[in-house]
## 1
Amino acid sequence: MLTLQDAAANQKLAALQTLWEQKRGERAMPCRGDLSVADLRPWLGNLALIDLDGAGDTFRLCGTNLFARFGGDVTGLRVADLRDEGGRSFRDGIARVRTERLPSIASHTQIIHGEEVVFNELALPLSSGGIVPKVVLFASYPATAKWAG
């Protein structure tokens, strides 16, 4: 059963996916350039951009509200360097987006300061004008009120 925090997180993720769908139009996925900072402002602290560079994929940006999810700022780090269970679930989501070229929704549970925290997450593929994802736009919201920011 969803809590109020779950519903709020899911509404935020649904709104982000709706924006992605609008920007995509008839294409397989939108280009990174289709989404301006102004477009993404409602989600900024909960977003990460991951460059799919084939050499381990790299966090280009990590919003400050994601530090709890990743254990700190991961900007500039390779996705492969995330070694815990949270890293594994994150890598799995990135792999799904890369392979399926579709949005991926997941939940992830981890222990933070002895407390179980559930994160509702959305990964969205972005291209550079073609049908191959070049960037993943990732959003995550904790479903636990204490961690919801």
## 2
Amino acid sequence: MKTLFLSLLSICALVAAEPAKAPAEGRAGRLLEASGVKAEFLIKPDRHVALTFLDAAGKPMARGERSVVVKVDGKDLALEPKPEGFLSKEPLAAKEPAPIVVQVRTTADAKPTNFRLTLNTANCGGCKHQEYACSCDH
């Protein structure tokens, strides 16, 4: 009886747990989250990159003093500042897969926070997001 109760309790705990790093509601990009930085990295249909900073509720927020460097396959991607983040000036090259490094600084003199992902715009069969933004555990 005790084993049955513990098993049911464990199942309830697993069902109640939220998936880690799920994209913010209504968003199709990759959620970047670490040490005070929360942002969405999105590759638009025209292959331009948009980086939008998010508040705790997942809503867009002001960029503030933050600065961002994006490197795709070792080359810097030119970014244009926007009120809530950054937008690339040029579309991404067609080469896939390619490594992407996103470096975010909260202030000009702050230590950067680095995020690494792979440029892959194929659709995931599980979560239906593009592979770079996949929220599955495969």
